[in-house]
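Lab notebook, bench 4. Still working through the backlog of constructs that have no structural model yet. Next entry is a single chain of 309 residues. Request: give me the structure tokens for it.
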Amino acid sequence: MNKFTREISVEILVGLFMFTVLIALSIFTIVLSHEKLWSESHSYEFVFTEVSGLREGDAVYLRGMNVGRVKQTTLEDNRVHVYVTLDLPVTLRHGYQIDVVDASMLGGKILKIYEGPDDAPVLGENITIIGRKPVDMIQQLGEAVEGLQEMINAVASGQGTLGKLLHDDTMYENMTAISEDLQVVIDKVARGEGTVGKLLNDDSVYDDAAVVMANLRSVTDRIAAGEGTVGKLLMEDSTVYENVDATMVAVRGITESINAGEGTLGKLVRDAKLYDEATLLVEDVRAAIDDLREASPITSFGSVMFGAF
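Model written out:
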């Protein structure tokens, strides 16, 4: 009897252990799959020409946050239909983007959703949501490596500017000649030859510059002290300043009188009749000069003819 009871107890313990293990496995499965059993989910369907290795269970990101999972991928009519479940509803607008991007440098894919500009109109119902063709980073890296290899080969064969710099001795010879010429110029400057050499080595240039600066400072000091015409013009209480101010007032009065049509000059400027009469007078004078010019040969001929008698 005790042996039978002991066997039943062992079987019960084994059953409880197995039940506990099954419950733990179920919990771990739910946690690892990121499934939320008691929360509301939203299903969407996206259509791609290809998905570049996107698989069921891959994460779906919106504004940098994980908001769901890829539920299923199917191939229909040469297109890949991707079904996702999201934890929150998504409002897609014109200008949206659905992209399959790399999860990390180590591999893996994620689905990235961009809802579109905030001021764009919302998409209507029953519209097929088209995803963009994924960018194959491996392919792009291979193309970049091929381009780099072509460039290296071109340089190695002496093509292009860099290739010529590495293989053409003419450039080296030109640089050597330039360096030698530059050294000659530096030597001449060091010996005090030429204008630059004299500026660097001749103290008289410095002395002249010092004298000029001293004279300039003397002039500015005199101006600041109110000496001379310029100094008096700059002094507010100077008579010259007052005279200039009075002259400007008088000139302003004359210009205002001319603009008002006062005086002879004002009438000439403002009265159109005087302008017309002056124009006629100039035309008459020009006509008289032309008549005299035409009559000049006859007068000369008459003077020669009658001068003999």
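Notes after review: The chain has a mean pLDDT of 80. The beta strands are 42-48, 59-62, 65-76, 79-86, 97-102, 109-114, 129-130. Flag for follow-up if needed.
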